[in-house]
């Protein structure tokens, strides 16, 4: 079975501009874009892809990625906007384990947990994307990361079968997980949160939200561009190197936070890549540090 034969049962957008499907609003044409929320449909698509040799890319809400201008010669699976609410699996003492689907928006999960006085995810306030993307990239802030909370992960493999990972099978590191390479697709996740008081949870939420006040709002970005080097801050290095306000074409380093690049309206991915190179070069010259990308570059021509 080929992927095209599934188009009668699963919505497909052929020759779709990728600028509509990522937070930076850039990127060329994809062969096809297919939104999916159910595990069964996702497995069917992956089996069909494996049988036919079609290239597949999985994307959540499109944050933390840069899609190249050359587009994607393959099918893009959108695992996002899953309406299935999180469910409580078990509880003991003050601990509560929940299961949540990979396509569930992270911002909605934070709100869901706050309403139930469940603490642990407050650091994620303001982090865009889906739960699956957050786990694959071990998203975090202020020394906290989602990998610290993960109790189990269910993934879909290349051959269309599912794998279940227990906590002992998982190793998370700074912005890294066993699923960062994209071979195993995260479909659902277990998280252990702590039952707390409403006042304390909301206090922690306000605290972490206040730490994001210096980040750009109401502009097209993809989140932090570079990882923090060991013992340092990429944002502070970029600021010290005079990167704020630098621009190439329609892309500009944010004047609010130097680790963000804004699409001013007509940026291309090539503009962003050139600006990334300039910023990286300035930091290397001044600090002797080669900043690593936190964003993932995808599309034809990506390394």
From TrEMBL:
PROSITE patterns: FAD_PCMH (PS51387)
Compartments where found: Cytoplasm
Primary location recorded for the protein, binned into one broad class: cytoplasm
Gene Ontology molecular function, alphabetical: FAD binding; UDP-N-acetylmuramate dehydrogenase activity
Entry similarity comment: Belongs to the MurB family.
Function: Cell wall formation.
Full protein name: UDP-N-acetylenolpyruvoylglucosamine reductase
């Amino acid at each position: 079975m080929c992927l095209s034969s599934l188009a009668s049962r699963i919505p497909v957008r052929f020759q779709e501009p990728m600028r509509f499907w990522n937070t930076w609003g850039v990127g060329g044409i994809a062969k096809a874009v297919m939104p999916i929320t159910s595990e069964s449909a996702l497995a069917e698509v992956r089996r069909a892809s494996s049988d036919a040799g079609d290239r597949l890319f999985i994307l959540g809400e499109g944050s933390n990625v840069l899609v190249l201008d050359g587009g994607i010669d393959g099918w893009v699976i959108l695992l996002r906007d899953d309406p299935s609410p999180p469910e409580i699996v078990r509880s003991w003492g003050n601990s509560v384990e929940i299961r949540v689907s990979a396509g569930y928006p992270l911002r909605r999960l934070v709100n869901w947990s706050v309403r139930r006085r469940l603490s642990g995810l407050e650091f994620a306030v303001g982090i865009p994307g889906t739960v699956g993307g957050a786990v694959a990239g071990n998203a975090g802030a202020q020394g906290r990361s989602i990998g610290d909370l993960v109790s189990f992960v269910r993934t879909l493999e290349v051959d269309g079968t599912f794998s279940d990972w227990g906590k002992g099978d998982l190793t998370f590191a700074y912005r890294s997980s066993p699923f960062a390479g994209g071979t195993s697709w995260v479909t659902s996740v277990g998280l252990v949160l702590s039952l707390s008081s409403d006042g304390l949870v909301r206090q922690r939420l306000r605290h972490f939200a206040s730490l994001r006040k210096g980040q750009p709002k109401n502009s097209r970005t993809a989140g932090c561009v570079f990882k923090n080097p060991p013992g340092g801050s990429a944002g502070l290095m970029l600021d010290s190197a005079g990167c704020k306000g630098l621009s190439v074409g329609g892309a500009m380093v944010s004047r609010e936070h130097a680790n963000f690049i804004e699409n001013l309206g007509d940026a291309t991915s090539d503009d962003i890549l050139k600006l990334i190179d300039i910023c990286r070069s300035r930091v290397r010259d001044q600090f002797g540090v080669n900043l690593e990308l936190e964003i993932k570059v995808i599309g034809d021509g990506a390394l």
